[in-house]
Design goal:
heterodimer, A: Mannitol-specific EII, Chain A, six-stranded mixed β-sheet, 5 helices, 6 strands, B: alpha/beta, Rossmann fold
Chain lengths: ~150, ~100
């Protein structure tokens, strides 16, 4: 079985992301996805992310948010990670400002993507570990972000 | 104490699996035996066995959506919360279960 680090793609990880608010972060990460050919178009994907946002909080506490878009527009399943240069407001469980945004891109065709989704679920589980979160918060390079999940 | 449970969130992509990890860690920290089944986009994983359910002191459901196989817990003590609660305060949650069931 592939390791979960295979879902961590340096092309869609950004350190020192400059954004004033939630919308800017989501759009910037969606643009990274587009550039790396995970999605076709930014706008419909962003729209699908907001559909999920309406269903419940994606700020999971400790400065981390995990928005996700399940969209026909997704060609490849993956996660984009943005480490923000400054904390921003985001609805969360503990009201802490958000500094790490992990955007999940998932296609609607989940049957053919079962292996990738399985990896994504293992990856998500890692976010439940304090050691992983602590390392992630200290990460100063793309490699350190990837290493945090190892 | 023996805990079995299910996690399931609305999208079935992330919260389900984060909640599972958080519950398992908190329960193990308290010396409990814990088994959590996930019901997500990829279907049911880590399915609970009838023996595990039979032996469990409590069934913990951290679910935001309708789950399948709820009838398996008939006659058991069931505690239901949201995945948010499991993610935010797992330790408090497990301690509450202990005091509610009078288990140290």
């Amino acid at each position: 079985m592939e390791s979960i680090t295979s879902v961590l793609d340096p092309k869609v990880i950004k350190i020192g992301l400059n954004a004033k608010n939630k919308h800017e972060v989501i759009v910037q990460l969606a643009e990274l996805f587009k550039k790396a050919n995970y999605i076709d178009k930014v706008d419909p994907f962003v729209k699908d992310i907001y559909l999920r946002e309406r269903e419940g909080l994606t700020g999971i506490g400790q400065g981390i948010a995990i928005p996700h878009g399940k969209s026909d527009d997704v060609k490849h399943i993956g996660v984009a990670i943005g480490i923000l240069s400054q904390g921003i407001e985001w609805e969360s469980l503990d009201n802490e400002k958000i500094r790490i945004v992990i955007l999940f891109a998932v296609s609607n065709d989940t049957d053919s993507a079962k292996n990738q989704l399985k990896l994504l679920s293992i990856f998500a589980g890692r976010l439940g570990h304090k050691q992983v979160v602590d390392k992630l918060k200290k990460a100063q390079s793309v490699q350190e972000v990837i290493d945090a999940f190892k | 104490m023996k805990i079995v449970g299910i996690t399931a969130c609305s999208a079935g992509i992330a919260h389900t699996y984060i909640a599972k990890e958080k519950i398992e860690q908190a329960a193990k920290d308290c010396g409990d035996i814990v088994h959590i089944e996930t019901q997500g986009t990829i279907g049911t994983e880590n399915a609970l066995t009838p023996e595990e359910i039979k032996e469990a002191d409590v069934v913990l459901l951290a679910v935001d959506v309708k789950i399948t196989g709820r009838e398996r817990f008939k006659g058991k003590k069931v505690v239901q919360i949201s995945t948010d609660t499991a993610i935010q305060s797992p330790n408090k949650l497990i301690k509450k279960l202990h005091s509610a069931l009078n288990v140290k």
